[in-house]
Structure prediction request, 198 residues.
Amino acid sequence: RQRLWEWVSDARAHLGESILRENERYLLDREAVAVDLDQFEALLAQARTGRGADRERLLEQALTLVRGQPLVGTDYAWAAGDMRRLHAAIVDLLSELGNLRLDNGNPTGALAAAEQAIEFDPYNEAAHQVAMHAEAVLGLRQAIVGRYERLCQELDTRFGLEPEHETRVLYRRLLSQDGREALRHLSPAPASPEGVRR
Prediction:
């Protein structure tokens, strides 16, 4: 209890009277303090109802609030669920943003978003699919081959699995057509939360 009081005192020194007490609990007054997580989730909610350029703008705004892995270094048991949820939300955001950038004729930006998603989750095939689409549009045929072969090796080594059916079909299709055809036939697969294997 003494340590808790010390932490609350320290927090109040930084945040003023935005730390509230309710019986034996301490709460953050979210009306008094801007919380980046609240802003992030509000932008994602708005993006879900947005269209086209507006949707892309909202996702770009949400992405500016992402500064690395969520809650990195946290070892509190209560935080585990939030960490998984935020991790999946960021990966889905990046995959969706990549698809929107492709739709808007920005394959370089799409590839950057996909690569960022893969940094968060190396086994998320939706992100790899966006990357392969972008590489096809950019004419980077050998990059597609290298990416797919690395993905196959990593999935086999880590899980004893091969890529999902959609990824295998996409790979064969992209290698059989040029960049313009790849963009015309763009049909992104939905993101798999947290790269969970099915």
About this structure: The mean pLDDT is 87. The chain is about 65% helix and 5% strand. The radius of gyration is 21 Å. Residues 114 and 130 are 6 Å apart (CA to CA).
